[in-house]
Write the structure tokens for this entry.
Amino acid sequence: MILLVLAIQLRPDAMRDASRQTVRIYCAAGIAKPVEDIVNAYNAQYGTDVEIVRTGGSGELAGQITMEFETGLIGGADIYITADDRLLDKAYQAGVIAERFSVAEQRPVIAVPISNEIPMGGLSEMLSNPEVKFGIASEQAAVGKLVRGVASDLKVLDKLEERKATDAENVMTLAQALVAGSLDAAVIWDTTVSQLNQTGPEPVLKISALVDASDQTRSEIALGIVSTTRSPTASLQFARYLTANQTGQPSFENYGFSFLAGDDWEQVPEIHLYCGSMFTPVIESAIREFAIREGVNLYPRWEGCGKLVAAMRSIDDENLFPDAYLACDESFLRQVQEYFNDPVRLSRNEIVLAVSKTVPSNVESPLALANSNLRIGICDPEFSALGFLTRELLSEYSGPAGNPSNVLSEKESLYQTIERQAAVKADVGPTLISQLVAGGLDAAFVYRSNLAADPKTLQAVNVYSISNDKTVGVATQPWAISKSTRNPALMQRLYDWLDRAEIRDQFKKNGFLDPVLN
């Protein structure tokens, strides 16, 4: 029997190997305090060597990691933590960042010294008072970009630039100027106010007003693993710790951040993944690479989707339920959709007729098989998406020119006729392929990807499309993350890993079609 569940596990010393790797962090200045607390706790607990080596404005740090990436500098940042997730997304699209993590949110506010009684109901009111000496951050800082965006919407950007007393490099510089009394007001983060007020016995700053009165302008703090890191596993393990609910949330909320729900913390998470068997030759190695890079134990189960669905319905232990399901066709995901979040379409796969080259050349369509003496192979519609879709396709099939030879009985559809004649009814397509190549079958209905998995197969068979319409006889493969998984962010990163250009190329080489977008 084929091994259905493969455990991709770490070596016992994998965590010790990771703990010996140095992880260098570039961190936006306004986020440094909670990150520093988390770094200290992590190093103390696991004996690791994680350190913040540079702080500054988010834009400044983004420019630095981009320069390091473009010049091939060794020993730069492993992790970039920014107050502006848009900067991280831009770096990700450019290939500078390999993995992304959401962390927390914060809001831009007008802050003043605790003793300041000057009324400032909002940005426009602050600008209209000539006695208020205020500062903003430069455009290299995330809060500097945000306040300029709000001012532009209010049509007061020119006035903001004319009246500012300073545009500091980062929010901490502005906050310190407020404490020192050199500014009456400054646009900083609400979290910066919280942090400064915890440094002494009494509060030193207060929030006078939101920069955006509608409270719609917020910044998402995000973390990225730099693609040139020499310590990917150690960096990813710390990133999971920082963004986990149990280990990262308390520190961020202590400083006033709105923490974004992350995964549960486990030093080495165990992940269960259900995959239709068609994907084995395409993504098995990529999944192995992901497990090793992340430092997780990953248990993929490759099987016909009917059996996977039946297995899901029989699971009693929620810890064994799949964290994600990559189905051979949407019809099988629909049977268990209540357990999963909304899916994303990953690929499509065409059902074709494969005929041994030893068979006369006039067998070019399913109709030619009806009432013939040929040995035909199909997949079981109860256990596999391929069998289910073959049944759907052939039940309505009449061929390009109808049924001119009247080979079909009035009481039977083409599928019923072929099912009655079938010499083999298998669970998965590769079983049919192996028998076709070995000479045990003359014809079989399989996925195009089943044929592309081994070049020798294409030398032994002729391949015929059943329909010219690429929406008929085509399976659509959805990816869905379980509602009950403790690791939704990790599973999203696995999807992103499989959605890379190089893996997309593997799908195409194996006969898959691009997905139809949702």
The chain is about 40% helix and 25% strand.
